[in-house]
Every structure is written in C-alpha cells, then in structure tokens.
Design a protein that fits this description.
Blueprint lengths: L1 E5 L1 E2 L7 H10 L9 E9 L4 E2 L2 E4 L2 H9 L4 H8 L4 E11 L9 E8 L4 H16 L4 E9 L4 E8 L7 E9 L9 E2 L2
Antiparallel strand pairs: 1-5, 1-6, 2-4, 3-4, 3-5, 3-10, 6-8, 6-11, 7-9, 7-10, 8-9
Length: about 180
C-alpha cells in the first residue's frame, strides 16, 4: 500500500463552489481505476484547500496516474503542478462504518522519535483503536522516511483527532476491499 496527497492552496476569496462542482462532475472518473484502493476528494475551508488523498494498491498504477497520462495532467493543467506528498503504507484498518459514505477526513502527522520501532508500534496500536470507533469508515497509517514522520489518515462520519480536518466531497474506492488489512509487513 502506498499513500499520497497533494494540497492545492486556493485564495481566501476563491469560490469553493467551483471545486464542489468539479468533484460532482468529474469525481466518478476514478471509481473504476485499477490499482487504486481509494481516493478521498477532500476540501478544507480556512484556509481554502483542495487536498485529495489516495491509497494505492499498485505503485505502478500510481506512477501511471501521475506521469503516464492517467488523469493527473488535468490537475496540472487547471492548477499547476502541486507537490505530491507520499508515504509508505504501514497499516490499513476498515472501520464499523465502512459501508457508509464518509463525510469527514482527518490527517494527523507526528514526528518519529529516536526509537522508530517503538513509535511505529505505538502508532499501530492507536490506529487499531481509532478504526474501531463509532462512525469510522477506515483508517490508515503511513511513514515518510525522508522527514521521519508518521501520518494517520481517518475517514468517517465525524471529525477525529488531527492536525488537519477535511470535508469529503466524494470517495472513489474501486479496490478498497482488496487493500491488505492490518500491518503491511
């Protein structure tokens, strides 16, 4: 599993209805994308931001999406080329609300201390507890080994503990059921 997200900062006076219409009209384009576990079309106001989050089953399909004419060129055409953050997947857990469409997403980024193994074990235990929470659709844990940060991403019916919170406009989940559950190694 591989996680990625890009954040498109928009001006304070930007009509966020444009993004809502864009997702309503085009969001279904990835509903059948091979290799994609899920794409959450995310919006945040204050500051205005469009910030889709992906969990890929197949890194080759992710590469095709980014540079092989697989769809990312539309973002580049409309907004310029954003920085794409990416993380190695450590764990994925479906939640009790996985059959419902999530309305909210949260991202919690934490630094990895001197004892990386202990930090990951603690985060894995936290992820498991979070995923069992009422209204949780799914939760993922991933690692950025460049900056030594963990990211916990949660989809659900309510806002969760986070450094960033988002509204989910659409969820494409063509291979959600095929994502490996639990620790990825």
């Amino acid at each position: 599993m591989y996680a990625k997200q890009y954040e498109i900062a928009l001006p304070a006076d930007y009509d966020m209805g444009i993004i809502r219409r864009r997702v309503a009209e085009r969001g279904h384009a990835l509903d059948g994308r091979a290799g994609l576990g899920l794409k959450a079309y995310l919006l945040r106001e204050s500051p205005n931001q469009y910030a889709p989050f992906y969990l890929w089953r197949d890194p080759g399909r992710m590469a095709e999406f980014l540079v092989g004419g697989g769809g990312f060129e539309n973002i580049v055409r409309d907004f310029g080329r954003p920085v794409v953050r990416h993380w190695t997947g450590l764990a994925f857990q479906p939640g009790p609300a996985r059959d419902r469409t999530p309305r909210h997403a949260s991202r919690l980024v934490t630094p990895v201390g001197a004892d990386a193994a202990a930090a990951v074990e603690e985060a894995l235990a936290g992820l498991s507890a979070t995923a069992r929470g009422s209204g949780v659709h799914s939760a993922a844990l991933a690692l950025d080994p460049h900056h030594w940060q963990l990211v916990r991403f949660v989809l659900g019916e309510h806002d969760g503990e986070a450094t960033e919170r988002y509204e989910v406009l659409h969820l494409s989940a063509p291979e959600l059921g095929a994502l490996r559950v639990g620790r990825q190694w």
